[in-house]
Design brief:
The chain is about 20% helix and about 30% strand. The protein is an alpha/beta fold. It starts with a strand and ends with a strand. Bound molecules: zinc ion (2 copies).
Length: about 260
């Protein structure tokens, strides 16, 4: 059965509009995974607004959304997500312990005019603990703890013998690399936190580099690695250079661009 990954947002920290960011894109983290009319979304950064536009007029009745952690760049797309206000919509939200409380605090007056509790869609919260297995629609999921200030979850989704590992906002050190290698073993695609290059990495900030993504793909025997969550400082010419260098090191490596579609 076909599964398609679509990229809606590629930045970390802050959206970055402007002419120097048109090729890779300026929206924050959001990708979707589609299978047989079923839609799983990974993080609700500002890229979610582009996905929402594509869904306009479609008879979607259920959407499953995984939120890696409550940092603003992964949640900001929810503020204006029209499906929250569609009474015919069933929205399943997956995240760490405290997800419901975090969302109801963040999306609420005085920070926003309409609160999460006032949404007309039917919301189902699934709070997950590291190591837990879960169902996300027809996908079989597993979560593990990321290494990130305040904590994050990385997840692995599987269906029809295909697997995707999602590891945004996770800093690689020796112990994390070993855990991620096991977690990503044999995956078809790893979506990777390529916030920085090796030269720019800031230990303790909770992020990784594209070089580490390539090393992980090899160690885990995974199929491909999709770089994302770029620093908002990285312009198109800079990312192009990095992409060329990365592809010389590993031909399977892909730098995410908004609007990109990949078959899993
Ligand atoms: Zn982030
Ligand atoms: Zn974060």
């Amino acid at each position: 059965m076909e599964q398609q990954v679509k990229v809606w947002g590629v930045r970390g920290s802050m959206p970055q509009p402007g002419p120097a960011y048109l090729q890779y894109g300026g929206h924050t983290a959001c990708i979707s995974l589609e299978r047989e009319g079923e839609l799983a979304v990974l993080d609700a950064g500002s890229g979610l607004s582009c996905l929402a536009k594509e869904l306009e007029g479609k008879a979607l009745r259920r959407l499953d959304l995984f939120l890696s952690h409550p940092h603003f760049d992964h949640m900001m797309g929810l503020f204006t997500f029209p499906l929250l206000h569609d009474p015919g919509m069933e929205l399943h939200l997956y995240g760490g312990t405290g997800l419901q409380k975090d969302l109801e605090t963040l999306i609420d007056p005085p920070y926003w005019p309409v609160g999460m509790r006032d949404c007309e869609a039917r919301l189902f919260y699934h709070e997950l603990r590291p190591g837990e297995q879960f169902r996300m629609g027809s996908f079989h999921g597993t979560v593990a703890a990321g290494n990130h200030p305040g904590g994050s979850l990385v997840c692995r989704l599987e269906a029809d013998g295909k697997s995707l590992v999602y590891t945004l906002d996770c800093e690689t050190d020796e112990a994390m690399f070993a855990r991620l290698t096991e977690f990503s073993r044999g995956a078809d695609l790893i979506v990777w936190d390529a916030s920085y290059t090796r030269a720019d990495k800031r230990p303790g900030w909770g992020h990784s580099t594209w070089e580490e993504g390539i090393a992980l793909r090899r160690a885990a025997g995974a199929g491909r690695v999709l770089m994302s969550h770029y620093s908002p400082d990285y312009t198109d010419p800079f990312l192009q250079e990095q992409e060329l260098e990365a592809q010389r090191a590993d031909r399977t490596c892909i730098f995410a661009r908004e609007g990109m579609v990949l078959d899993l």
